[in-house]
Specification:
With about 350 residues, the protein is of the alpha/beta class. It is built from 16 helices and six strands.
């Protein structure tokens, strides 16, 4: 009982800083000196795990500025490493972006918007790596034991979940050497192995990729929807780096289950991301449906036509191929179920 109360109280005291959005003094945080970080018996209460999560969050806030910035050159290098490509001449323009902005701000803004998604993806990847490294340093400063091992486990599994890639051999070796609890490292290794295996396999039968279109660009939307005449088509513009897009995927899965056996096609249009991250996300998140990765030009054309200023964006097409709603409700909405069912009747 004493451990449960102690870790529950510590968890509440840790939460105060973000519930009240205040910066707490060093004197306030001295209560941590009374809380055992490494406590094998703490695993018997859920409050211990909750406290360690908060402690790790606290560690992130005290180990440096949470907003990590990177030079444009670093972002470009990461984008290339992630498989992104820029049109001929555009990379040189980015490397002299400040000069371009001073001489032609309109052209500079257009250039940035053209690659916004790619750079957001690369910048996010760099920030995740930097954040993980910073948290590893914070946890490494603790006395070895159960609590430190749990923190290392949280850091490793959270990184895999967010980037949807297996850990590198270097990172695996780090966790193997630092973690003294065999069960925790074994779980990291299991998750890593399962993720690597899943990404190495072809797409499941529930997910199929539409090959590159051969039609005129002005006919992109028609070419994408025409094969599904006779079905209601629910379209989702999304990207792996888009938090709201990914947050809506469980609701989309539920919607698909509700519509199982009916003439409904779920068409996912990936935008502004590398083919690798797009395909890895489809596999790791098991996103069933028809998938197509729009080229930059195809997305620019559709964005202009339908005034798309952000994602996720949903659309609804009836069985005759008519666009019924170019800004349809999200998959968690009851209205979209009603709208789809109405088009089916």
């Amino acid at each position: 009982m004493d451990a449960r109360i102690r870790y529950s109280a510590a968890d509440d005291l840790m939460r105060y800083r973000w519930l009240r959005e205040v910066s707490l003094s060093a004197d306030y945080m001295k209560f941590l000196d009374l809380i055992p970080i490494n406590n094998p018996l703490g695993l018997l209460t859920s409050n211990y795990s909750a406290f360690l999560q908060e402690y790790l969050s606290y560690g992130q806030s005290v180990s440096g500025n949470t907003k990590i910035s990177h030079s444009l050159r670093e972002v470009l290098a990461r984008a290339r490493a992630d498989g992104a490509t820029l049109d001929l001449g555009d990379e040189e323009k980015f490397l002299s972006f400040e000069t371009l902005y001073k001489t032609d701000s309109v052209a500079a803004i257009e250039l940035f918007e053209k690659y916004r998604g790619i750079f957001e993806n690369a910048s996010t990847s760099l920030s995740m790596d930097a954040s993980e490294e910073r948290l590893r340093q914070f946890a490494s400063g603790l006395r070895p034991g159960t609590g430190q091992d749990v923190l290392f486990g949280i850091i490793a599994t959270d990184l895999m979940e967010r980037v949807r890639k297996p850990l590198s051999e270097e990172k695996l070796a780090f966790y193997r050497n630092q973690i003294s609890t065999p069960a925790i490292y074994s779980e990291i290794e299991r998750i890593n192995s399962e993720l690597a295996q899943k990404l190495a396999e072809p797409l499941s039968s529930d997910a199929s990729v539409i090959p590159a279109l051969q039609s005129e660009q002005s006919e992109v939307f028609k070419a994408l929807t025409e094969p599904y005449l006779g079905n209601v088509v629910y379209i989702d513009f999304w990207a792996p780096w888009c938090g709201p897009c990914m947050a809506n995927m469980p609701a989309a899965k539920s919607l698909k289950e509700d519509m199982a056996g009916k003439n409904v096609v779920f068409l996912y249009l990936g935008v502004l991301c590398s083919e690798e991250s797009w395909e890895n996300t489809i596999k790791s998140e098991e996103i069933a449906g028809k998938h197509y990765l729009l080229s930059k030009d195809e997305y620019a054309l559709l964005s202009s036509r339908f005034n798309i200023d952000g994602i996720p964006r949903y659309m609804l097409v009836d069985k005759e191929g008519n666009l019924i709603d170019d800004d349809a409700e999200a998959p968690y909405s009851e209205q979209i179920r009603f709208a789809i069912q109405t088009l089916l009747d």
